[in-house]
Amino acid sequence: MSILGNRVKRIEDVRFLLGQGRYVANVAPPDAAAVVFVRSSMAHAKLLAVELDQARRMPGVLAAVDAGSLGANPAPGFPPIPRPDFLQRHLLATDRVRFVGQPIAAIVADTLSQAIDAAEAVVIDYEPLDAVIDPRRAGAHATTLYDELGSNVLPAMPLVEAPIPDFSDCDVVITMEISNSRMNAAPIEPRVAAAHWHADDTLTCWSSTQGLHATRSQLAAVAGLPDQSVRVIVPDLGGGFGAKAAPGLEECALGCLSRIVQRPVLWVESRTESLQAMCHGRAQYHTVTMGGRADGRITHYHLHNLADAGYTPTGVGFLPFLTGMVAQGCYDIGQVAYTFETVLTNTSTIDAFRGAGRPEAIATLERAVDLFAAETGIDPVEVRRRNFIEPDSFPFATKTGSVYDSGRFAEGLRLACDIAGYGQLRSDQATRRESGSKKLLGIGVASFVEVTAAAPGPQTEHGAVTLLDDGSFRVDFGATAMGQGTETTVAMIAADGLGVGVEQITLRSGDTSTIPHSNITAASRTTQVLGPTMVDASKQMVEAAKSIAAQLLEAAVDDVVFDQGTGAFAVAGSPTISIDWPAIAAATEVPLATVGEFAQESPTYPSGTNIAVVEVDAETGSVELLRLIAADDAGTIINPMLAEGQVHGGLGAGVAQALCEEIVYDVDGNLLTSNFTDYSILSAPQVPSFETTHYETPSPNNPLGAKGIGESGTIGSTAAVQNAVIDAIRHLGVKHLDMPMTPQKVWSAIANASAPTPTNASSS
Q1: pLDDT tens digits, residue range 550-578?
Q2: For 575-591, how does the pLDDT look when each residue is reduced to its tens digit (9 = 90+)?
Q3: What is the mean predicted confidence (pLDDT) over 117-122?
Q4: What is the mean pLDDT of residues 530-546?
Q5: Among 92, 119, 377, 758, which is least packed, fewest CB within 10 Å?
Q6: Nearby residues of 511 by Cβ (< 8 Å), 6 or more positions away
Q7: What is the structure's pLDDT at 456?
Q8: Residue 495 pLDDT more than 70?
Q9: Is CATH 3.30.365.10 correct for 458-595?
Q10: What pLDDT score was predicted for residue 162?
Q11: pTM surpassing 0.85?
Q12: Could you give the dihedral angle defined by the CA atoms of residues 200, 206, 212 and 215, in that order, rounded to the nearest 10 degrees?
């Protein structure tokens, strides 16, 4: 019997629960010197001088360097960026600083406290420049961040072209500006890295990264070494969420610093540094127009996306494209156009954060659907039902260039409504309003489709199986495990194919000296790409073992059969005599080893519906999330418990963005949310027990039929909670409220609302 689809407990949790997790700071060389970076205190200024002499004389200081003395090549960036010369990023600021927190100099000292003291002794001479902070004003700002560009608007990049719809024939048209606020990934473990430059001009780096080999390539390029001269080791990760997809400028500098001081170095980012200088996410500003018929049929849609890149373009090379890939959502809309432009601002760079471009698209689309429903006077659930893409329409080509692989969008909505008791919730809401209660009930619905394993070209991942002397197996894999249950998933798939228990699988990953290649663990891609690779490696192992079993059984290879349920080889028709894996191992002079092969040619498109139920206190503006229901279609589920865990994490992230999380700068570019007192992250007591269910529409794009699940919760819950809060106060005259919907913002909206408007008709 197959173990796939069963609730197998996470095998990685034992070491974490026993305090045996090993992170970069645990495994760095014990004689590593401490590194501290001196950061810009100004958002925009010419850098006139960096005085390091006093710092160099401080106790314990081994080196104090600026850009000129670091000896590093510029870091390569991420294509597609408009100009090749714009890909280069200096690790330490050269002629100009462009955001508060940009590294200017680096101090290496025997101890962390000595490095901190020396950093405070560095004197920097600035010539202030006007700061460009608001992305909505960046294009017209008199000050430009890069003189060679001549503008803060990046040149347009290729996109699927579609004419802007003509809304003149629509019965109903809504237009709205919607902001998707800037966030921080806030992993439990901030960025941490160590490096040791060896006497033979090779480099070993320990990194908290999501991309083993991508990090090696970046570090090699910066250090001027060939890839094979750099070894990267990735131990346990305390969360990544996209923000650790690539090494930061600080990490890239460590190899050169180790070369200078001739000993290992360690950098541990502080929480304030993490909030300041780790890439941020989201930061998109949308103008949306939706039109259709009075009967609730949506016929026209245009989304224009103004994307904030921060001080340098990294994630903007792909994030707006991901937004465009799902801009049409779950709906069969005749005329759709997606346009975007990207601007530079004097803020930390924008890059991937859980969902990476898709939460932004769905939050805007689902707000627009609710606004459209309000204008037509039709219940928002019914409007969604009337516009879904039908199940027999797949593969479905959207107007923005995506090809959805499979889906049953109406089924997700039905399941979520049934669990929520949608009709009763609307009745309860009406009762409260009629009674004049100040505790206002809001019900928010968001149906979504997202894209996973989305990247140019076929998607591959390394996966290999080796039969060990005792008949157990070692499984090597390239993907980075960072809390999502990768080790359990890989062990389950390999064990299932080999007919053994997961306890007979030993896992190895996270080291370029033993793993030949890997891809960045991102875009919810691991199970659907690595999974089939492991299936293939396991099948190859079974086939290789059959020839040995045939010799031991004195039978023809073609007559040997493998029982996947027992992990035994026997002759067809004579099952009483069998050979197990320990016997196979004992009969081989050289251990059997196989490498799986699989390339996924197209991305997959998970989908689902979230329903949020909130209570808004009309007198204080406080919001309490009462319930959050998630119905998800991630194709074939390998382990329901892991899938639920991933959905729970995503739901928490989405709720946090909707209600409290936001990176805020003042007009001069100073970060106002530089610690967890000012940057409000969500804690467990602030959310109810989530109510989740799964339904499976297998993907045709891989043999497992799997789709991604790691980000779906983030994509649906953000819009559902936002819609719920606005639904609670809409009858008071509040049509829209941007995230995060803090008590002050909600209270102000209620206080400043116009006269009450009629409520919508309801349907079950």
Answers
A1: 999 999 999 999 999 999 999 999 888 99
A2: 889 999 999 999 999 99
A3: 98
A4: 98
A5: 758
A6: 212, 231, 232, 233, 234
A7: 84
A8: yes
A9: yes
A10: 82
A11: yes
A12: -70
Domain ranges of the chain: 17-129+188-239+244-277, 280-454+602-751, 458-595
pLDDT digits (tens, 9 = 90+) for 432-442: 999 999 999 99
Residue 763: what pLDDT?
34
**What would the two tokens of residue 195 be?**
């490096």
Phi-psi region of 699 (alpha: psi -120 to 50; beta: other; left: phi over 0): beta
CATH superfamily label, 17-129+188-239+244-277: Aldehyde oxidase/xanthine dehydrogenase, a/b hammerhead (3.90.1170.50)
Per DSSP, the three-state class of 305 is strand
Place of tokens 């495990």: 481
Tokens linked to 143: 């000050």
Query: Comparing 280-454+602-751 with 458-595, is the CATH topology the same?
Result: yes
- H-helix or E-strand containing 578? strand 574-579
Could you tell me the two tokens for 252? 């890239």
3-state secondary structure of 515: coil
The pair phi, psi for residue 580, each rounded to 5°, is -100, 180
Cβ pair 539, 597 in contact under 8 A: no
Q: How far is CA 275 from CA 141, 182, 681, in A?
A: 26, 11, 12
Instruction: Enter the CATH code of domain 280-454+602-751.
Output: 3.30.365.10
Q: What residues does 574 pair with on adjacent strands?
A: 571
Confidence of residue 103 (pLDDT cuts 50, 70, 90): very high
Residue 323's φ and ψ, nearest 5 degrees, are -60, -45
Q: Spell out the alpha helix ranges (H) of 335-408.
A: 358-376, 380-387
71-89: buried (b, 16+ CB within 10 Å) or exposed (e) per residue?
A: bbbbbebbeebbeeebbeb
**pLDDT at residue 758, as a whole number:** 45
pLDDT for the residue 87 = 58
DSSP string, 581-638: HHHHHHT-SS--EEE----B-S-B--EEEEEEEEEEETTT--EEEEEEEEEEE-BS-S
